Amino acid sequence: MQIPVEGFMYPNEVELQWSVLIVLYPFLTGLVAGAFILASLERVFMVKAVKPTYRLALLTALAFLIVAPLPLQLHLGHPERSFEMYLTPHRSSAMAMFGFVYLWYLLAVLVVEIWLDYRRDIVVMSQCTTGWKRLVYRVLTLGSTNISERSLHIDERVGWLVTVIGIPSAFLLHGYVGFIFGSVKANPWWSSPLMPVVFLFSAMVSGIAIVMLLYMLMCRLRREPIDMDCVDTVAKYLFYTFIIDFSLEMLDLIHRIYEADESFRSLDFMVHTRLFLSQVVIQILLGTVLPILLIGVTQVVKLAAEQRKRIYVVAGCLTMIGIFAMRWNVVIGGQLFSKSFLGYTTYKMGFVTREGLLTAIVLTVLPFVILGVLVKLLPPWPEKKSAISSVAVAAYGAD
Amino acid sequence: MSITRRQLLILLPAAAVAWKSILAGTPEASPNYNMTEHWWGMLVDITKCIGCGSCVRACQMENQVPDGYFRTWVERYHVSDYDIENPKVDSPDGGKNGFPPATASDGKNFFVPKMCNHCADSPCTQVCPVGATFVSPDGVVLVDQKYCLGCRYCVQACPYGCRFVDPKKKTAQKCTLCYHRITKGLTTACCENCPTGARQLADLKNPNDPIHEFLKTHSVQVLKPYLATRSKLFYNGLDGSVR
Fold it and tell me: Does B240 touch chain A (CB under 8 A)?
């Protein structure tokens, strides 16, 4: 397959090394980190208004975290050797540490926090259900069936501590993904100390937006009223985080334009041509400025609940598109120009290939399927909880 | 002799490790070669390069480089008198079969052979997640083909575009400075086949190597010095327009 090239590329640069799957990887981990940080608002920072989204945010983070390493595995030339990253990690490599940060976050933070938060429900469900469900819940109890008040109080305290540890861990998880790119000094499009910070804030934006959208969607599916106080608060946090994220991105852009180093002409050309649609139109205008303006309107104008809901849905969807475009522009954009700054190549995405569009679509849908299973297994709804509570009272007494 | 279950549990992993090393085989022996006595680099004299592509062909044959990928290549620069910051560069098929005649009459034309710079502070080895690529004690940047994951991070990290992933082996490939030859006292395939001596293998630890005299008496430059990679690919006559 002939790849169209403009100007001069070093001969080995013509083919792109990192595909759409590597675009997905920071996108998915960003959703994990963002969703977790939203959950921590309720748990650590006592923002009670967002409580209805707390459990949903945790389950969303888990669903995306399970899928996050899959695009990397599919991308590797030798996935069967990937375990070597744990056995013989190269300590100077940012990528090598991903395995450990990932495992830490998955096993020491997210799973522990979810288990502690759901432990009481799991124990009760293991008693109330029958058949395979009972077996699943019994396994999930991990043999710990004590749900006395004192025991639950300990769960609560430990859970709080895990969340406190989880916040810097979430920062580490995604800030470090930014560092993977930001530390490549060979590539001026990536090489920036701002990259981890930009990645972190964009992660928070995307995570908050997805939980907000999922909460509204699930309320609709369950024919339950949306807690507008909750959604308004989430939207307010989305708005503030978005402004910080946008400011950082603009700071990076203005800095590059003003400094105008030797790579600038090349990068400037790219933004005006090959990346114009994905960066200027989709990422900046549609995916950032418009949602900020839309949510901004809800912050300054008194609108009816129905109108606010519609605005939040539109702004949330635009945000997700914008953040995906940002990942695309970083990963793909960073490979479209030559390190000689003398030419440009083209990204040709396959469809039914190992790293093609179909694989990317499947990997994007997969977390939602996993989330569906998790929600069935561990319902995050307060009313379910109260139903369970009555069963628990019947089964275990008031204690 | 009977083996207890505990002994068996201890022995099994040890046996697995031993079997793995047997399967890996032993590297080709170079009994008289001592890594610590060498520090390899290369000298490229741009004033001597005629762009014939012999080096590219020799490298591809010697190292079975797949078509469309290059461990070494030659670029032709055309620098106009009026726009020295924007050279026109071409490298048809890596310069393997030479170059068509130059068309522009103004400015200057010259050839620049390129290859791995075998940097002492190489950004590519720094980023490898498993340490499959490394700087050997004699200063050659190598890739352990049985260990490389094929993650392509090193390809991204190389500022000179010298790496690629082999489409069949799915591992990172690059110039090995013909390590299988230089450890036997031979020179590299590209140096051996250069008709004008534009490429010279250099052992910086050998006080009798002519590189020392050359470095003393010539203005020598490396590519992208601002990246501080401690490149060991030294260019004589390197124009400021070369990237």
Answer: no
